[in-house]
Write a structure and sequence with these properties.
Structural class: alpha+beta
Number of strands: 7
Number of domains: 2
Largest sheet: 5 strands, mixed
Low-confidence stretches: 1-5
Helix content: 55-70%
Strand order of the largest sheet: 2-4-5-7-6
Number of helices: 9
Shape: rod-shaped
Oligomer: single chain
CATH architecture of the largest domain: 2-Layer Sandwich
Radius of gyration: 38 Å
Mean pLDDT: 82
CATH topology of the largest domain: Heat Shock Protein 90
Distance between the termini: 30 Å
Order of helices and strands: HHHHHHEHEEHEEHEE
Length: 358
């Protein structure tokens, strides 16, 4: 229904245009030849409708058979010139034939004394109208071709962006699993009970994360569940050495973000912050909404004099690339390292709605 409706509207518009042209031509003929207007309308209007339908189909198929970018220009000009001359001749002949038949019935309102000059004028007019129809069809074909190419390019960009996001997301789980298994391995000898508890927590964490893996975006509340589950795993390993403070704005809980966006940053804070401090340290997570922006800040303490640790950059690089792919210039991530602390700040659009399937 949605496809046929525009076609019907287009057909109605074309019919109205042809009727208007027919009436204009009939009026011009009546003025030039000093004949009754009714006779001119009855002769010219049907001929104009027949001519418009015939030339419309002819121009459409010729333009498709001889596209501007697929045939030599001289060939296109030659073919269209011959078609225009033939269309003009056909219109003049049809007018003369219709007029001759009308005169046979000797009806006062039918038939006109058409001179060769009038027929020549309609021939030239027919040629011009056909050329105009060809120009319109070429413009429409080029418009459709440009729109199709644009849609294909946008679709290709979207598919490439989604593939990149999937690639970046697949880097997270193996990285986190590798670190967690190393922690479990270290605990097996010194704290077997803790290793068992950590294994159970790890299984629960991946059960939860796999449930969200099919989504391109999840809510901040769902991301916080993952983070708290991860911290529960690390709490088994570090005990009281790991302290966590949260400052979460309730208005930000329903905002959407890519899944497991903050968790790698929390993991980095534990690995490069708490892990390197003899007495442990505190990780502070602040999430708030400021108008149209969602702002996330992660702060962790560092051991004074602790040298900067160069890992594989998985966490920060992954977050930066995922934000760039999902939001472009609308999102940003900055980090700052000082003597006794490290801070990461994220600013991104505050979007709400249902979570999106990936």
């Amino acid at each position: 229904m949605s496809v046929s409706l525009p076609k019907r509207r287009g057909a109605v518009v074309m019919l109205l245009v042809c009727l208007a042209l027919g009436l204009v031509f009939a009026l011009a003929l009546a003025i030039m030849t000093q004949v009754p207007l009714l006779n001119a309308v009855l002769l010219v209007l049907p001929a104009t409708l027949v001519y418009a339908i015939g030339t419309g189909f002819s121009a459409f198929y010729l333009c498709r058979a001889y596209p501007l970018h697929g045939r030599p220009p001289l060939t296109i000009i030659g073919v269209m010139t011959v078609a225009a001359l033939f269309a003009g001749l056909l219109w003049a002949t049809f007018l003369q034939f219709s007029n001759s038949v009308s005169l046979l019935f000797d009806v006062p309102c039918l038939g006109l004394p058409l001179s060769q000059t009038v027929l020549a004028a309609f021939f030239c007019l027919g040629v011009l109208l056909y050329c105009l129809a060809v120009a319109v069809h070429y413009l429409l074909h080029e418009f459709v071709r440009a729109r199709t190419a644009e849609q294909r390019e946008l679709q290709a960009q979207l598919m490439a962006q989604q593939a990149q996001l999937r690639m970046l997301r697949t880097q997270i789980d193996p990285h986190f699993l590798f670190n967690s298994l190393n922690s479990i391995s270290a605990l097996t000898t010194v704290n077997p009970a803790g290793a068992r508890e950590m294994t159970v927590q790890l299984a629960s964490f991946f059960r939860l994360s796999l449930g969200l893996d099919a989504h391109r975006h999840i809510t901040v509340g769902q991301e916080l569940q993952l983070i708290r589950h991860f911290l529960a795993i690390e709490q088994v390993r570090f005990g009281e050495r790991l302290q966590v403070e949260e400052d979460i704005d309730a208005a930000a809980l329903d905002c959407l973000l890519p899944p497991m966006l903050i968790q790698p940053l929390v993991e980095n804070a534990v690995k490069h912050g708490v892990c390197g401090m003899l007495d442990g340290g505190c990780i502070t997570l602040r999430i708030g909404r400021a108008g149209s922006l969602l702002q996330i800040t992660l702060h962790n303490l560092l051991e004074i004099g602790q040298p900067e640790q160069r890992g594989n950059g998985m966490g920060l690089d992954n977050v930066r690339q995922r934000l760039a792919s999902a939001y472009g210039h609308e999102a940003s991530v900055h980090w700052l390292r000082e003597t006794d602390h490290f801070e990461v700040s994220i600013s991104m659009p505050a979007q709400t709605g249902q979570t999106e399937q990936g």
